[in-house]
Design goal:
Helix content is 6%, strand content 44%.
Length: 155
C-alpha cells in the first residue's frame, strides 16, 4: 500500500540508512508553511545534500514544494536487480515544468530522463549493482511549480 503524507504531517523516522537518520514526510513543505517562505538556506539542492528516502514496505510518496530554480535531489539504497518505478506528479503551470532524472553517479550523465510538457513524469529502471540511486527533480525553464509528489516503488 502507498505511504502518503498530508500538508500538516511531519514524520521523522529513526530508520537506519548507513550511519545517518532518514527523514520521511512533508518536512520541507511544513517548514515553508511555518516560515511563510521556503527554507533558507535551500535544502537538498545538490547531490551532496540529497534527501535520503526511507522506503516503507518498499514504497514512499514524498510531497515537497519546489522552492528554488535548479534541482531537488533524493537518494535511496539499492541492491542488484531492484526494479524502481518512479513517478513525479505536479500541476503543470504555464510558467513552470518539472523533469525527472536518475543517476548512480551524480557527476555522470543521467541514466534515464523523463522530460515531457505534461503534469507528470515517470521512469522504470533496474539496478545493475548495489549502491545508491540518486533522483533529481529539476526544471530547465525556471518558472513556478508550487508543489509536487515524488513516488518511489522498489521491487
Amino acid at each position: 500500500s502507498a505511504v502518503s503524507y498530508s500538508e500538516k504531517e511531519i514524520f521523522i523516522l529513526t530508520y537506519p540508512y548507513g550511519n545517518e537518520l532518514s527523514f520521511t514526510g512533508n518536512i520541507f513543505r511544513e517548514a515553508a508553511t511555518l516560515l511563510g517562505s521556503c527554507p533558507n538556506p535551500p535544502i537538498n539542492t545538490s547531490a551532496e545534500q540529497a534527501t535520503p528516502l526511507a522506503l516503507i514496505n518498499n514504497e514512499i510518496t514524498w510531497t515537497q514544494s519546489y522552492c528554488y530554480s535548479g534541482s531537488n535531489w533524493y537518494r535511496v539504497k539499492m541492491s542488484a536487480g531492484n526494479v524502481f518505478d518512479i513517478d513525479l506528479n505536479f500541476t503543470h503551470h504555464p510558467t513552470g515544468n518539472l523533469d525527472l532524472r536518475i543517476y548512480t553517479d551524480p557527476e555522470a550523465p543521467a541514466l534515464a530522463t523523463s522530460a515531457t510538457l505534461n503534469s507528470g513524469e515517470a521512469l522504470s529502471w533496474t539496478a545493475p549493482s548495489a549502491g545508491t540511486l540518486y533522483i533529481r527533480v529539476s526544471t530547465d525553464q525556471g518558472g513556478f511549480v508550487p508543489e509536487y509528489q515524488l513516488r518511489v516503488v522498489k521491487y
